Amino acid sequence: MATDARSEHRVDPDLDGTGLRVAVVASRFNDHITLRLLDGARRGLAALHVAEADITEAWVPGAFELPFAAKAFAESGTVDGVVCIGCVIRGETTHYEEVAGQCAAGLQQAQLATGVPMAFGVLTTENLEQALNRSEEAGGHNVGEEGATVVVEMARLVELLRR
Ligand code: INI
User: Fold this and answer.
1) What is the C-alpha separation between 92 and 67, in angstroms, rounded?
2) Is 145 a pocket residue for ligand 1 (Cβ < 6 Å)?
3) How far is the CA of 49 from the centre of ligand 1 (A)?
4) What are the boundaries of each domain within the chain?
């Protein structure tokens, strides 16, 4: 029977983001979706007790600009992690591969170069329906909310390894 890795290795129920400083960078492109992901990220950070005062939000034009902004935040030394939010829908662009691929590769490079964890809260979908299904309200599937958990988990891991 197929298994879901998420169900086997659950997030630490004691995971707590108290005191962590987090940037959330969101793309304006497809903002009918990215606003839903941003809501999810806020919800996720609040649930993990990241204080509102420790959260900095910023907007960029599109997913292509996310790596630049995330790296700039990381290099500023003011954040422990960056949740990156975007939405690239294949049916709506002729350069889906370039935008989605460069965004993913750029974020991976940026987090490896800076040592500051960055969550890929970016939807890369075939159509609008899939994007809506992955940016649901509280209790539903929301990749922005998942990104918040990822950043807190990874920031705590970095903390542990540096101790
Ligand atoms: N940016 C997105 O975030 N999602 C898209 O679907 C998209 N499409 O369709 O092209 C998109 N393009 C803009 C791109 O991210 C840059 O902002 C633009 O090319 C300027 O650098």
Assistant:
1) 22
2) no
3) 32
4) 22-151
